[in-house]
Amino acid sequence: MTIETNLQIVRTRIAQACHGAGRSSDAVQLLAVSKTATPEAVARAAACGQRDFGENYIQEGVEKIAALAHLGLVWHCIGPVQSNKTRLVAAHFDWVHSVDRLKIAQRLSEQRPPTLAPLNVCIQVNIDAGANKAGVAPHETLALAHAIAALPHVRLRGLMTLPEPAADFATALAVHRQATVLFDSLCASGLALDTLSMGMSADLEAAVQAGSTLVRVGSAIFGARGGA
Ligand SMILES: *Cc1c(COP(=O)(O)O)cnc(C)c1O
After folding, report:
1. Global model pTM greater than 0.90
2. How far is the CA of 48 from the centre of ligand 1 (A)?
3. In whole angstroms, what is the distance from residue 201 CA to residue 90 CA?
4. At what angle do helices 141-149 and 102-111 cross, to 10 degrees?
5. Whose CA is nearest to atom 1 of ligand 1?
6. Which residue's C-alpha comes closest to atom 4 of ligand 1?
7. 46: in domain
8. Domain that holds residue 136
9. Would you write out the chain's pLDDT as a tens digit for each of its 228 residues?
10. How far is the CA of 220 from the centre of ligand 1 (A)?
């Protein structure tokens, strides 16, 4: 199927999930995950009105950002950020979803070019203590969030989760609900957060039902990735 058709199907899935959850259809933003997709594929999605794109691999992302600069898209880094890559990320991306250490946030803040708006960041939380060890532990999230919120050149927007694939809808929903509870507790502690980045191609309905405000969808838009 074409990218145009796929995008339409994903938008319909999100709208139906919002409707089913009694949420407004504009309550959930679509981030198109374009890792391994070509710049041409990204441009086709952009021609259908898609503005926000997510990249995992920083070098690949920076190259695409440069190739497509004329389109004025919004770029999100959603993959692991090592210390030696923070300068590239701070200079080229608009968002980072995968911050899980204060040191990385401090470097991003220091290295954000002063001509650009503050870098939007989400804290990646290891919500299900999965084999995927990336992300801060839930009980450490509050302290990290307040430390990041105090940095001058980043703007803390919320949380990102990447749980292990769930066997069924109910299991996915339960895990996503834990993230929503954590998100709500951070808001109640005085942080002004607006982004709960959770849900992917396979589980976006459960994520929207649980309260996600941004779903990150790759393969359902751009097709299966070879080997990934
Ligand atoms: C690849 C990826 C996605 C998208 O996954 P799909 O299953 O292709 O929708 C979302 N978030 C992160 C962090 C990813 O690495």
Report:
1. yes
2. 20
3. 28
4. 20
5. 218
6. 218
7. yes
8. 3-215
9. 899 999 999 999 999 999 999 999 899 999 999 999 999 999 999 999 999 999 999 999 999 999 999 999 999 999 999 999 999 999 999 999 999 999 999 999 999 999 999 999 999 999 998 766 799 999 999 999 999 999 999 999 999 999 999 999 999 999 999 999 999 999 999 999 999 999 999 999 999 999 999 999 999 999 988 754
10. 10
